[in-house]
Amino acid sequence: MQKRIWQWTGLNEVTSGAAEREQPDQGEAEIRIASIGICGTDLHIMSGHAGFGEPPLPLGHELAGVVERIGPGVDGWAPGDRVCIDPLIGCGVCRECLNGNKHRCARSGEIGLHFPGGWQEYLVVPAANLYRLPDAVSFEEATQAETLHCCLGGIDKLDIRLGCHAAVIGDGPTGLYYVQLLKAAGASKVSLFGMREGRLELGRRLGADVTVNLRSADTASDATAPETQDIAIDAAGNEASLKLGIELLKRGGQLLLFGLPGHPIQADIQSVVLKELTLAGSTNAPQVWPRVLELMASGGVRVKPLITQRYPFEELDKAIAFARSEPDEAVKIIVSHSQVLGGTELP
């Protein structure tokens, strides 16, 4: 049996075709893909700026779908179950994996980044990487559980106290999720810093108390004054955003580093030391997946307002082209199979 597939085949190139469906092996399940999120990481890989990934490869690590078949030794799952997929795969035998920290495994990789991803009709994955979708979470929304779980893992590394002031630097999807998570965790004032007015307006709708357009910021305003924030989250990952985060923090403040620069950058370590700042880096957080799905189901975090464009699977190349050419308009693009776009569940 064959399946339709899209592959990254070269510098900013995607190609459609067909491939043989795989039989799920011991401990594996075949998933019929319903929806895929287009992530900025996909674009970085395709442009050669990510430093990993080798074409030809079907990308796509923000995934949701339905169990189609299960392999030997798989318990707790059956065809028809609605699922999202943790794309992270560890070696399973190192100290970090055995301690439940597969995201720190030196030999780990991700579905859709290092291994074949969701740009296809069917995908075989380890059954251990599946999470059951609550009825209240749609396939489109479920694609964002991957991004949200990374953000929630970052929140867990912070000491967020009721009444604290927090700054989020970066108005991409992760920055917009961090705004919501900080408010849910008890921050009384959250300021969002970015460069795109449409994204900043969305941030206000999602709970940001203050938004600052860094292209036209009034440096005398309260939000941009130095040493006004208890917490700063750098969701942009560049030298300017890191500098701003350090400047904004009060003495004894906390700085979460989340955005990836892609190359070494300069940092004002003297200010970090003299202000006694606490720095933490954050990537994946496999232990928080169940909590993320509970948050989504309860409405504690809203995903739908971030979905700005929808494309059918047959037009995945157009979705990629739009994401690349219109970054200000494309907050989050979702590619789905026809039944999902038509508003119904997959059979």
TrEMBL record:
Domain Enoyl reductase (ER): 10-335
One Pfam family matching this protein: ADH_N
Gene3D superfamilies: Medium-chain alcohol dehydrogenases, catalytic domain, NAD(P)-binding Rossmann-like Domain
PROSITE patterns assigned to the protein according to its UniProt record, in alphabetical order: ADH_ZINC
InterPro entries: ADH-like_C, ADH-like_N, ADH_Zn_CS, ER, GroES-like_sf, NAD(P)-bd_dom_sf, Zn_alcohol_dh
Keyword Methyltransferase: no
Molecular functions (GO terms): oxidoreductase activity; zinc ion binding
Cofactor field: Zn(2+)
Protein's UniProt keywords contain Oxidoreductase: yes
Keywords: Metal-binding, Oxidoreductase, Zinc
Family according to the record: Belongs to the zinc-containing alcohol dehydrogenase family.
Protein's name according to its UniProt entry: Alcohol dehydrogenase catalytic domain-containing protein
